[in-house]
Amino acid sequence: MKDTIDSYVTADGRTIGGVMMEMKNITLRFGGVVAIKDISFDIREGEIRAIIGPNGAGKSSMLNVISGFYHPQEGEVWFRGERRPTMKPHNVARQGIARTFQNIALFNGMSVLDNVMTGRLTQMKTGIIAQSLWYGRAQKEEFQNREIVEKIIDFLEIQHIRKTPVGRLPYGLKKRVELARALAAEPKLLLLDEPMAGMNVEEKEDMSRFILDANDEFGTTIALIEHDMGVVMDLSDRVVVMDYGKKIGDGTPEEVRNNQAVIDAYLGVAHD
Amino acid sequence: MIYRESGDYSTTYAQDSQTFPIRFDRYRFYAVVFVAYCIIPFIINDYWASAIFVPFLIYAIAAIGLNILTGFCGQVSLGTGGFMAVGGYSVYKLMTSFPDVNIAIHVLLAGLITAGVGILFGLPSLRIKGFYLAVATLAAQFFLVWLFNRVPWFYNYSASGMINSPERTIFGYIVTGPSTEAWAKYLICLVFLTLCAVLARNMTRGTLGRKWMAIRDMDIAAEIIGVDPLKAKLSAFAISSFFIGIAGALFFAVYLGAAEAGDSFGITKSFLVLFMIIIGGLGSIFGSFAGAAFMVLMPVLLKNVLVGQLGWATDLAAHLEFVIVGALIIIFLIMEPHGLAQLWRLAKEKLRLWPFPH
Question: Is the pLDDT of residue A205 over 90?
Fold first, then answer.
């Protein structure tokens, strides 16, 4: 029913807009292995969309399709009302899609500040000549973007480690810095690949709060993969469930929880 | 006790992002610049210029260039000697073809030509990485040296196959050719080094530097935040080769005066500059200076100690010199794999807390 209306208001008062991204009949094969089989789903403006499923279900492959690492053999990707042609990841980034990785992919040799500043690269336009002169355009642009980055740093409460090389940070903070880098790009759509993996309860609570706040304050649309069902059920507006590359469920957390196919996939089913 | 950041408050982003955030460092830097420009030129003699200062300045330019490519962008190159040869032969052809144009412009043009060649040989880096790329750049080294030896046009059909630097002046002072004075050699190299260091610092502190470092640290994540690997890698090759080309041009025109591709710009040059940035510190402008100083000073120092102080035979000392320098490099790399720049950083961190380290 929600698919037919343009926008609606959630129980906690957030407005969910029309369809932002639509995946139509995506099929992705690696040689003979079918990683994703004929999957369609959509992501609406302003919502938190979860993709769940057992290991090897094809969730990360799906995220990689959205961010342009993999190019599906069949199907179409629609973003903001237009069909997206086959694109390199750096062009996808320019469209306003940012992401984090399952295994942290930060730049270890650089400070936290520099890492978050890299999130602004798509917005920085000065050429090599202006860069090499520094004073003037390059410096001005640098400081304008620094201001935005400092806001993100405040938002994620990582001011105290601003100048620390990322390689020295503990795991939980690294995850937070990676989120900061993605948010610094001011993305329209933010993809999070297991943002809570390997965290303790407090860290998960912090991270959940940051995700909700980012969605609330910046209006960022978020698609996330997560294995912690408590987190998924609490955070997300709608959930896609995948198993062996196929979609087995799609709907609100409540609907998904009661879906027999989902229960079978997670708990197993007796074969006779 | 004077080495403190306390009391130095940054109230603007400009202050926060300056090169020397600690006041003492800033004054020390001004002092070094003052000595380099206002004192050394008046007291320098031929021995100091040709044994230490001029090679140090020129190698520092080359090391900055290679450090941009290898240290900042993570692309290993063994073609430095070949690219220096491009700089040297370009400046020679320019000097002999357009004798009326100022030599400084020729040196810059030689840098630009080398940048073009660098882009050409950087193209494989889009497909191959690491050791394989190193081998590909090694091919550039051998090909370029072969080219300059075999095609007579490059050495103006001279009978010896050598190129000789003609006499050229800047502001009426002779800066190339056999009758150049020590201070003139020193100053022209110093000016170019200052220029290159400032450009390199500016490029690495901002967007461009971040793009390079992103590619170096994790190329997949770099792509996902919008770095075009093609542009980032090729710009690193171009700018790195620009500096190396300038170094090669000065090496031939100012320092050697006469050169032959195989001898002057052989594979040993590539390794020498690579050692400089490894010992100095990858990804650090200061490290390029430190590494160049180390590799230029070490042999001179050893020779003075072994022959001058201990009275060894010259030939014995010359051979042992290689052994000792090699051993020092190994010991040094085991003790501090991140190079002199890291030692310097650690010393500064300790000094900031001294004498109360807790």
Answer: yes
Rounded to 5°, the CA angle A239-A240-A244 comes to 145
Mean pLDDT of the region A94-99:
93
Max alpha carbon distance in chain B (Å)? 70
Given a cut of 70, the residues of chain B with pLDDT beneath it are: 1-2, 358
Q: Which residue of A has its CA nearest to B15?
A: A143
Put simply, whether A98 touches B (Cβ < 8 Å) is yes
* Cβ burial, residue A232 (10 Å; 0-12/13-18/19+): buried
Q: What is the pLDDT of residues A8-60, one digit of tens each?
A: 887 777 888 889 999 999 999 999 899 999 999 999 999 999 999 988 899 99
Question: Per the domain annotation, does B277 fall within a domain?
Answer: no
Task: Output b/e per residue, A214-229; b: 16+ Cβ within 10 A.
Answer: bbeebebbbbbbbebe
**DSSP letter, residue A165:** B
Count helices and strands in chain B by DSSP H and E runs: 17, 4
Bridge partners of A48? A222
What distances in angstroms separate CA A94 from CA A127, A137, A212, A242, B208, one per listed residue? 17, 21, 24, 28, 17
- Domain span(s) for CATH 3.40.50.300 in chain A: 1-96+187-272
pLDDT reported for residue B310: 85
**What's the number of domains chain B is made of?**
1
Q: Cis ω on the peptide bond leading into residue B178 (within 30° of 0)?
A: no
CA end-to-end distance (rounded Å), chain B:
15
| B336 token code pair | 């501090």
- Facing residue for A89 by CB, picked from B17, B210, B224: B224
Contacts of A138 in chain B (CB under 8 A): 202, 206-207
User: Which CATH number describes the domain made up of A1-96+187-272?
Assistant: 3.40.50.300
In a domain, B189, yes or no: yes
Buried b (16+ CB within 10 A) or exposed e, B77-115: bbbbbbbbbbbbbbbbbbbeeeeeeebeebbbbbbebbb
pLDDT > 70 in chain A, percent = 98
Which stretch of DSSP H or E encloses residue A128?
helix A128-133
Output A2 or B265, whichever has higher pLDDT.
B265
For residue B216, tell me if it sits in a domain.
yes
CA distance B133 to A11: 57
Q: Give me the residues of A, 110-149, that contact B with CB < 8 A.
A: 110, 114, 117-119, 121-122, 124, 126, 128, 131-134, 138-139, 141-143, 146-147
The ipTM assigned to this model is: 0.89
Q: Is residue B330 part of a domain?
A: no
Mean pLDDT of A62-72: 94
Of the candidates A262, A270, A272, A254, the residue with the CA atom closest to the CA atom of residue A2: A254
Show the domain range for B173: 44-264
Report which secondary-structure segment, H or E, holds B105.
helix B103-122
Q: What is the pLDDT of residues A170-184, one digit of tens each?
A: 999 999 999 999 999
